[in-house]
Amino acid sequence: MTIRCKRCLTGKGTHTWTSGCVARKGAVPENTSKTPPLAHLVGMIGEGGVARYIEEQERDGQRQLAKSESLPSQLNGCTEEEVRAIGIDLGPIPKDIHKGDALFRPATLPDGWKIELTNHSMWSCIVDDRGFARASMFYKAAFYDRAAHLSLNVRIRMQQDYDARRRDGTTVYIVTVAMPGCAPNGERNAKTIHTHVDTSGLPTEWQQADAAQAATRAWLEENYPDYKSATAYWTTEF
Question: Of 7, 99, 126, 206, whose CB neighbour count within 10 A is largest?
Answer without folding.
Answer: 126
